[in-house]
Design a protein that fits this description.
Blueprint lengths: L6 E2 L12 E3 L8 H7 L11 H22 L2 H4 L8 H15 L15 H4 L11 H19 L10 E4 L2 E4 H27 L6 E3 L2
Antiparallel strand pairs: 1-3, 2-5, 3-4
Helix pairs in contact: 2-6, 2-7, 4-6, 4-7
Protein name: DinB-like domain-containing protein
Organism: marine sediment metagenome
Pfam families: DinB_2
Length: about 210
């Protein structure tokens, strides 16, 4: 798939400004989203708008993906069985996230280590991507997402843009990324459980 400009009709990952997400199983563990809550830095007394609500659902999904990356041992990161390796699935997830939640008036930026086959998870890829490269890339795409979402108002959530010859509202773009990230996190968690008996914990708003 070629990602093109749409038409209108490196710092650590910190996702949780006002997202309100928390971990269900281990309340003492500080995730990026959780840490600000636990330290009392984001006591929101204002009624949330729809942008706020969408963000506090999307940010925990990103935190769970981040935890999958951190938990995955190197030997499993590159392992190929009958499915694409973890690095490939994570890159696919992050690239799609960046493609959909950014300023569509500008062309997408491909990282220097880009592996084209990984976008569609075609076999076999012509290279691989390290955890360090993925972590750096995640920082970048999260910053892009935060910058993009800071320009979105509740009213503009229903604004439509055209990409791939179809119309999408900004709300559609956020919701589909929640689904897409969780789809891959769920699968990758199952791999971690089967191979290493570890998994990323569930993170959710007000849970």
């Amino acid at each position: 798939m070629v990602y093109e400009k749409a038409t209108t009709s490196h710092t650590p990952v910190t996702l949780g400004e006002r997202s309100g997400a928390k971990v269900s199983k281990n309340p003492t563990q500080k995730h990026g989203v959780m840490q600000e809550l636990m330290e009392g830095e984001i006591m929101d007394t204002q009624k949330p708008d729809m942008v706020h609500i969408l963000k506090r659902q999307l940010d925990p999904s990103l935190e769970m993906l981040k935890e999958v990356i951190e938990l995955c041992p190197n030997e499993l990161w590159y392992a190929e069985n009958d499915t694409p390796p973890i690095w490939e699935q994570v890159y696919h997830t992050l690239f799609c996230f960046n493609a959909w939640l950014r300023d569509w008036s500008k062309p997408i930026e491909y990282p220097k280590f880009h592996v084209e086959e990984a976008l569609e998870m075609k076999r076999p890829p012509t290279g691989n991507i390290s955890k360090e490269q993925i972590e750096e890339y995640m920082n970048k795409v999260v910053e892009d997402y935060k910058s993009f979402l800071s320009t979105v108002s509740p009213e503009s959530l229903l604004q439509e843009q055209v990409a791939f010859n179809k119309k999408w509202t900004i709300a559609d773009r956020v919701l589909v990324q929640i689904r897409h990230i969780q789809h891959h996190v769920g699968y990758l968690n199952s791999v971690l459980r089967m191979k290493k008996r570890i998994s990323a914990e569930w993170i959710g708003f007000n849970e």
